[in-house]
Design goal:
The protein is α/β, with parallel strands linked by helices. Helix content is 45%, strand content 14%. 35% of the residues are buried.
């Protein structure tokens, strides 16, 4: 087993439980089973998922085994982590359909041939009532209500089902089945990851260590997540991926550089200084970041083309350098924006303009009234322009 680079355990890491135990295992040369689960409640992964995958790939390159758990069974319940309401349940067929799209996306980051893929339905599909009751009997209500989200919903008198309370137990049981040595997850998964550690100890296994990674903000500044519709999806075209990264607020760039690129930490420190002091050009820093991210999920050539397309649309003489700016906090329809930017006096006029091919979004003709616009974007009506930015 190769030596462990110190940056592997420190760069872009929120917390390791228990760090001393994990370091001892690594220093002893033990080949570890590294678990991470994904919830296929929707078909597309986003770059927030890639934070964990990138870290797993580095462990994989050192000879450790990645075990990816496709949560096709618990996705039918809905992971309550960080949510204040019950999420609608999906059918098994829909979950399976979504999960199948994950395979291509996993392997844009990690090595397919060195990865063990496990579907929860392998074991939960055979679960009997006695198994479920045994699992439920290993946790107390007091323990479950120590979960911050559960407790807040309970105290507020909101709906909190027994099924949702079982979610951490079921995720923990995954660790028992696959004999995980380490579980990876975002900081919002800490409770569930620790449930796996406790359950392994109860069932006679060495408790897994927990490797927590920071959550990255999405296009609206909140935690990037499918429920918020603020993601940068891995399957976006190079141009759209580049544009979405460019729409991020300047202050997220240091974190993005740290967890989503291999840019040296000395450079990241300099970028952080420039952003905080306003001594450089954040546009150039952001374009470098967007190119780094596009190159990972597509190719370096795609990144160059996406950057050129962005510069043609937003920075060169195809469009005026100066134009009115309008801030939005969430994706908004082109029809609403035509009115709010005064490019149209009414929605009826906006519809006529679109029908006549007189409206462009980022240089392309708009054909549908419900086309969603996200920052940063430029709307054009004839010789009149409006730049849409993030609020």
């Amino acid at each position: 087993m190769a030596a462990i680079p110190e940056e592997l355990l420190t760069r872009g890491v929120a917390e390791i439980i228990v760090e001393s135990e994990l370091r001892a295992k690594l220093n002893a040369g033990k080949k570890l089973r590294l678990k991470q689960g994904f919830d296929p409640s929707r078909p597309d992964m986003h770059i927030g998922h890639a934070v964990g995958l990138r870290k797993l790939k580095k462990f994989q390159e050192l000879g450790h085994t990645i075990v990816l758990i496709v949560g096709d069974w618990t996705a039918q319940i809905g992971d309550p982590s960080g949510r204040d309401a019950t999420r609608p349940r999906l059918t098994a067929e829909k979950v399976r359909e979504n999960a199948l799209t994950y395979m291509e996306q996993f392997f844009r980051v990690i090595d397919r041939d060195k990865t063990e893929i496990r579907w929860q339905s392998e074991w939960f599909g055979q679960f009997k009532l006695e198994n479920a009751l045994d699992l439920a009997g290993r946790f107390t209500l007091a323990h479950m209500l120590s979960h911050d989200t559960f407790r807040k919903r309970y105290e507020a008198g909101q709906s909190l089902t027994i099924l949702e309370l079982m979610y951490p137990m079921l995720q923990g049981y995954d660790s028992v089945v696959v004999k995980a040595d380490v579980e990876f997850g975002g900081t919002d998964q800490k409770f569930n990851n620790l449930a796996g550690r406790e359950l392994q100890a109860q069932m006679g296994q060495t408790p897994q260590d927990v490797f927590l990674l920071p959550l990255i903000p999405g296009t609206d500044g909140r935690k990037m997540g499918k429920s918020f519709d603020n993601t940068v999806d891995i399957l976006l075209t190079p141009e759209n991926m580049f544009g979405k990264v460019m729409s991020m607020a300047d202050d997220v760039m240091p974190l993005y550089y740290e967890v989503l690129t291999d840019v040296p930490l000395a450079d990241v420190a300099e970028i952080t200084h420039v952003i905080k002091t306003g001594t450089g050009n954040p546009m150039d820093i952001k374009k470098r970041l967007a190119a780094e991210i596009v190159a990972q999920f597509h190719s370096p050539n795609d990144a160059i083309r996406a950057r050129d397309a962005f510069e043609r649309q937003f920075q060169r003489r195809e469009m005026p350098d100066e134009m009115p700016e309008f801030a939005i906090s969430q994706p908004t329809t082109i029809l609403d924006l035509l009115v709010s930017t005064s490019l149209a006096t009414s929605k009826s006029e906006g519809r006529r303009l679109i029908d006549g091919g007189g409206v462009k979004l980022n240089g392309e003709k708009v054909g549908a009234y419900d086309t969603l616009v996200t920052p940063v974007a430029v709307i054009q009506k004839g010789r009149h322009f409006a730049r849409i930015i993030a609020e």
